[in-house]
Amino acid sequence: MEGKRGWGFYVLGAVFALFVLFLYGPIVTIGILSFQGPEGGLTFPMRGWSTHWFFDLFEQQAVGDFWGAFYRSVTLGLMVMVTTVVVSVMAGLAFRRRFFGASWLFYLTVASLIIPSILVSLGVGLMFNIAGIDVHWSTSGFGSQLTWTLPFGLLIMFAVFNRFDKSYEEAARDLGASPWQTVRHVVLPIIGPSLIGVALFGFTLSYDEFARTLLTAGSYNTLPLEIFGMTTNVTTPVLYALGTMTTVFSFLIIGGALGGVALMRRRRSRAPSDAGRGMV
Description:
The chain is mostly helical. Helices cover 71% and strands 0% of the residues.
């Protein structure tokens, strides 16, 4: 009886399959259309198969600046990633102890997640104009995106440190480690996989962000803004080829992060056995 599957199992399976199709169907469709032949258009039916539009990406475009926008998005994503990791770890360590105004500071930080993104973009742009600072993707764009990534990084660090066993730190201090040595050699290696997750979260949120960058990027577009602007001008599958390449790039970043986590866990699992052999 336990081996039999009721109708509910197949209903849930069908619902899940429809959800996956809804989630990845547009990505697959764009990927297929990007392999249109030289005479291909933006819709089905396909007019031959080729990689013509991928090679066309590397040529001078009449409309749009693909590689400049890609460079700016990657650079901005790395800036946001590093800042998010550093600030999130420091904030997570700080919030382990109660201090005056901790609750209000937490609520103010998380509140940026529920404020409409376009209003955040408008507000940051106005602040930079009032301060006399040029609106630019590396300054105002950087600040507006941090209002999106930092709350997520902080929430992840809260969850990590709530499960952190403080006995490891106590043991390190008993052995004479300084506070910095305890953080560097004990705390950071233990929470290392979580830091990779925060870094991945920060980079991908920045790389894909549109609304909070719309009014803060200045005269130079990031890749999402460039793609949006080109949808009204580009009438060839080169736009789909760009979407396919950026999607592959995103999956490579995710795969690299998962590989880093797996490597850290493998090294951690080998550490006790290596220590035991050293004692023998």
